[in-house]
């Protein structure tokens, strides 16, 4: 058997997918896996791979659309748009190369749902297509129901709601909820911009996401980076009515053993701290935090005297106030990278300040760590709504942006107040649910076995 895997090379999509593929490769050792991704993304994820790749996985590079000597404009979506222009031909060419090199025809195609054109490729060669959804399931529902959401949006506007507000937030739409299965507690203002009507011309990325509602409901099997036990019942029922095989195989980021690397000394520093008293701060590898907010956050950390571990990219470090590192050396540590899974599992961590990316949310739940939410873009706001108002396992920064007062208030609430103890107890319940579902005989374990059977059957 020869399984081809197509990755979406931005954010943490590719890293999440390779975690799943490694687990599949170890469970199906007679099956060959060809992993297709851009060279830049492949270099990044395999450099940070936490274990040696199984022998039955081989990575192939696909064209990313960036020409030699290309000068980028500074638009964060430019790389995405250039990549999409190359699809699907870049994947088809690399697929032909893998077939020629291995001498094995492709027996199954596993892809990120974002790359929904893969359904046509699989259909043309009469093989199964198994799409994989990596963000939270609620986010998939927004794409399945995009047309209906846009109708709701237009209706709200026609009844006098404003769609402009402070910092681009839809003030009068903030409390408008959606009459859609599983999304009734989410607000219009929480949705990714690609889902809402656009005044300007649709981007290639929004068009790609728009294809999800056409292609995904046709599939037989859908793999989710989630646990069935965490769904709201209406959303689970809606998905089960659409997909014959809804396989919730658990959080992909937890599939592989954690790294033993601690080059920046995070874990040894945490060993010296008190239990549940350290604030871990990280906003992923993509988010660019406004300089003013970095200064406000730093001032709050300095004045609060709460122990903190801050994973801060070197290109942002210069935004810290002069002398901050020296003044906080006794109660804080700033590093360019941290082994996040191990950090969140450490007994000294009391709260995670996060942008609410899906992987960060999942790892926080799996380790029972409450969150302070400062969402930025994409599905961050939707995830924050789940954390704060649905699961009630965290708080949102007052006003939606970092201020010295807002950060101090949030840290005190989680680490020092009774409300923080209640939030802590709630996330321990979710942690236990995840642990049981991942155990032998658990629902996620059974769904994973079903997935292995599907990709290895003739």
From TrEMBL:
Family: Belongs to the UDP-glycosyltransferase family.
Catalytic reaction(s) noted: an anthocyanidin + UDP-alpha-D-glucose + H(+) = an anthocyanidin 3-O-beta-D-glucoside + UDP
InterPro entries assigned to the protein according to its UniProt record, in alphabetical order: UDP_glucos_trans (IPR002213), UDP_glycos_trans_CS (IPR035595)
Gene3D superfamilies: Glycogen Phosphorylase B (3.40.50.2000)
CDD domains: GT1_Gtf-like
Protein's name according to its UniProt entry: Glycosyltransferase
Signal peptide: 1-27
SUPFAM superfamilies the UniProt entry points to: UDP-Glycosyltransferase/glycogen phosphorylase
Alphabetic keyword roster: Glycosyltransferase, Signal, Transferase
Pathway info: Pigment biosynthesis; anthocyanin biosynthesis
Domain of life: Eukaryota
Broad class of enzyme this protein falls into: transferase
Organism expressing this protein natively: Dovyalis caffra
Molecular function in Gene Ontology: anthocyanidin 3-O-glucosyltransferase activity
Enzyme Commission number(s) from the entry: 2.4.1.-
């Amino acid at each position: 058997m020869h399984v081809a895997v197509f990755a979406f090379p931005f954010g943490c999509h590719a890293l999440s997918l390779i975690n799943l593929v490694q687990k599949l490769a170890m469970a199906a050792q007679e099956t060959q896996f060809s992993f297709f991704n851009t060279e830049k993304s492949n270099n990044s994820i395999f450099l940070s791979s936490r274990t040696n790749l199984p022998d039955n996985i081989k990575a192939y590079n696909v064209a990313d659309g960036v020409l030699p000597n290309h000068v980028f404009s500074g638009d964060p979506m430019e790389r995405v748009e250039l990549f999409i222009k190359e699809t699907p031909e870049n994947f088809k060419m690399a697929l032909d190369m893998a077939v020629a090199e291995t001498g094995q025809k492709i027996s199954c195609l596993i892809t990120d749902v974002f790359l929904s054109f893969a359904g046509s490729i699989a259909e043309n060669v009469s093989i199964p297509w198994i799409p994989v959804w990596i963000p939270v399931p609620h986010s998939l529902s927004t794409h399945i129901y995009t047309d209906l959401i846009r109708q709701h949006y237009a209706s709200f506007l026609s009844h006098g709601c404003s769609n402009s507000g402070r910092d681009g937030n839809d003030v009068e739409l903030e409390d408008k909820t959606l009459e859609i299965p599983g999304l009734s507690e989410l607000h219009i203002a929480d949705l990714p911009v690609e889902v809402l009507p656009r005044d300007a011309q649709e981007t290639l990325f929004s068009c790609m996401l728009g294809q999800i509602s056409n292609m995904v409901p046709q599939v037989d099997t859908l793999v989710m980076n989630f646990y069935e036990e965490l769904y709201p019942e209406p959303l689970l029922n809606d998905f089960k009515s659409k997909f014959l095989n809804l396989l919730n195989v658990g959080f992909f980021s937890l599939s592989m053993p954690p790294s033993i690397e601690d080059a920046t000394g995070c874990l040894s520093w945490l060993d010296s701290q008190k239990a549940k008293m350290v604030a871990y701060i990280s906003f992923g590898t993509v988010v660019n935090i406004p300089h003013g907010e970095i200064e406000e956050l730093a001032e709050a950390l300095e004045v609060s005297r709460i122990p903190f571990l801050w994973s801060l990219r070197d290109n942002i470090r210069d935004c810290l106030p002069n002398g901050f590192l020296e003044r906080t050396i006794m109660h804080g540590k700033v590093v360019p990278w941290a082994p996040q899974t191990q950090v969140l599992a450490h007994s000294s961590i009391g709260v995670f300040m996060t942008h609410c990316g899906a992987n960060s949310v999942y790892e926080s739940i799996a380790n029972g760590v409450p969150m302070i939410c400062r969402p930025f873009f994409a599905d961050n706001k939707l995830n924050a709504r789940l954390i704060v108002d649905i699961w009630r396992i965290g708080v949102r920064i007052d006003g939606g942006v970092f201020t010295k007062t807002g950060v101090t208030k949030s840290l005190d609430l989680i680490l020092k107040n009774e409300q923080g103890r209640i939030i802590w107890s709630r996330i321990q319940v979710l942690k236990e649910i995840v642990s049981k579902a991942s155990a032998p005989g658990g629902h996620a374990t059974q769904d994973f076995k079903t997935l292995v059977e599907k990709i290895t059957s003739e």
